[in-house]
Amino acid sequence: MKVCTGASMSLDGFVSGPSETGFEHLFAWYGNGDVEVPTGNPEMTWRLTEASAKHQRAFSAELGALVVGRKLFDFTNGWGGMHPLEVPTVVLTHNPPTGYEDNKWFEFVTDGIGSAIARATELAGGKNVGLNSGRIASQALDAGLLDEVWIDLVPVLLGGGTPYFSDLGVKPVELEGPLMSVQGNRVTHLRYQVVKR
């Protein structure tokens, strides 16, 4: 079991552009291939290249639970009740929303990144725990809880926005790798291991 963060990222290091823009570039690789990959959302089927499909299937097979922040949860409107990767999702928040008390896919944790990852680890059943990038990944890295960084590197410059990592308390952070490099269509899938101190 590993704690991993993964996201599509621009060449200048952003996972979203200014004012939450740029997703048509960051996520274009989800629709530029011939291989259909269904998700937990029946209205969302990815069309990937063979290389990206193999990468995505391996990631999904190893994933047991997610930890996301409230900002992403709200931005996606709770993914309509279930994350597309169809795994339990722990939302780290100061203020849990109402209306999700009976939803089996989401749990809300208010007492920090360590507790959120611990709960996700329980839910993951021995599989990996995935974290969204940005503040969540940064908090996990600062706490020494992050094992791997997965990057879907997209050849676009967004010029600003939300960085993959921000406000790190521990600097510099060394990574080993890439442990994996897969070339898709307008995306390169990379995986790095965090060097623990």
From TrEMBL:
Database matches in Pfam families: RibD_C (PF01872)
Sequence ranges assigned to domain Bacterial bifunctional deaminase-reductase C-terminal in this UniProt record: 113-175
Gene Ontology molecular functions: 5-amino-6-(5-phosphoribosylamino)uracil reductase activity
Listed InterPro entries: DHFR-like_dom_sf, RibDG_C
Coiled-coil stretches: none
Top-rank taxon, per record: Bacteria
Protein name per the record: Dihydrofolate reductase
Record organism: Asanoa ferruginea
GO BP: any one term: riboflavin biosynthetic process
